[in-house]
Amino acid sequence: xxxxxxxxxxxxxxxxxxxxxxxxxxxxxxxxxxxxxxxxxxxxxxxxxxxxxxxxxxxxxxxxxxxxxxxxxxxxxxxxxxxxxxxxxxxxxxxxxxxxxxxxxxxxxxxxxxxxxxxxxxxxxxxxxxxxxxxxxxxxxxxxxxxxxxxxxxxxxxxxxxxxxxxxxxxxxxxxxxxxxxxxxxxxxxxxxxxxxxxxxxxxxxxxx
Length: 209
Ligand SMILES: NC(=O)c1ccc[n+]([C@@H]2O[C@H](COP(=O)([O-])OP(=O)(O)OC[C@H]3O[C@@H](n4cnc5c(N)ncnc54)[C@H](OP(=O)(O)O)[C@@H]3O)[C@@H](O)[C@H]2O)c1
What we know:
Blueprint: E1 2-6, H1 10-21, E2 25-29, H2 36-44, E3 49-51, H3 53-57, E4 62-65, H4 72-78, E5 85-88, E6 93-94, E7 98-99, H5 107-114, E8 119-122, H6 130-133, E9 145-150, H7 153-165, E10 169-172, H8 179-195
Parallel strand pairs: 1-2, 1-4, 2-3, 4-5, 5-8, 9-10
Antiparallel strand pairs: 6-7, 8-9
This protein binds NADP nicotinamide-adenine-dinucleotide phosphate (NAP).
NADP nicotinamide-adenine-dinucleotide phosphate (NAP) binds at residues 6-12, 32, 35-37, 66-69, 71, 75, 89-91, 93, 125, 128-129.
């Protein structure tokens, strides 16, 4: 598949690089010629293409959004994302690693409000980027789980295929109102690692019977 990326920093690059290694084509949408992360991404992976966000949207029907949450409203309300699948990798983080929207609504639902015609799928947020760079945990017989939420079942299936390409088990946890709980899982992971010093190379697994 040809996949669009807006935001190609730690998270965007890890996902784009992993997906490119699995045979997907990556287009970085970027309107800032001075962007350091775009320069660095192109130096690290020569097969990435880059173009304006507007041009990128004419070539893809799935876009990964991996920018700071504070930039998202401006981005999604300015560009035409009608019928696009938007993989929301962002997390609204507030002071002292709190929920940035005071746990009243998820960031993903805000994106859905700002861009009503888009199919938002929350995914790739519950762990740090280190685990997107390398999702292999050799001591265990199962794959790490990637929890995903969204309102459109078909869009979730298409994102799930990419989740599996990257080496995760894909688990659909339900509609987009579940994204708030995923964002709290993220805060749990982030506080353990970024605040309290737990090493970053750990993930959750799903054990069912
Ligand atoms: N870091 C993690 O472990 C992790 C894990 C899961 C989810 N997340 C979430 O993923 C998102 C990205 O995090 P990150 O750690 O990858 O951040 P990062 O390394 O700082 O990268 C941010 C990216 O967003 C771009 N960007 C910033 N402002 C923008 C704007 N106004 N318009 C377009 N692009 C803009 C940056 O481009 P420039 O280089 O041009 O500034 C860069 O490519 C955040 O919402 C974060 O909460 C992070």
